Amino acid sequence: MPVRTLRLLPSLVLLSALCACSAEVAPGEDDGIEQEQALTDAQQAAESAATPPADGIADAPPPAPTCDASQVQGLVGQSNDEAKAEQARVDAGASHVRVLEPGQMVTMEFDGERLNIEVDDGGRIIALRCG
């Protein structure tokens, strides 16, 4: 073999090895492809969430609460009894009433159709509110 061919042989081996490796996806490029796919998926999910449902249910506003405690604020300071609590419920337009005594444990969920009557230790009304 001529000397010139022997000098080119290592370069050719290196070149062929580089060509064989270039067909594969580099690890950094693979992450980029995954990130692009995740971004595309997120955009599609956002678009589908922004599209209103076909049945139109989402267009309807939530029902307005029926309770209006401003109609019964004149009862503050008066003694409470069942008849007065029922009359306050009717006057406020509430569907039900709850009397809250001092130290009583109560749930904190909001119910726009409920009238809450807060009383002190002596049974006097100290506050009326809906919820």
From TrEMBL:
Residue stretches of biased makeup (Polar residues): 37-46, 70-80
Listed InterPro entries: Prot_inh_I78
Pfam families membership: Inhibitor_I78
UniProt-annotated stretches for the region Disordered: 29-95
Keywords of the record: Signal
Cleavable signal peptide: 1-25
The keyword Nucleotide-binding is assigned to this record: no
Compositional bias of kind Low complexity: 49-59
Record flagged with keyword Transcription: no
Protein name: Proteinase inhibitor I78
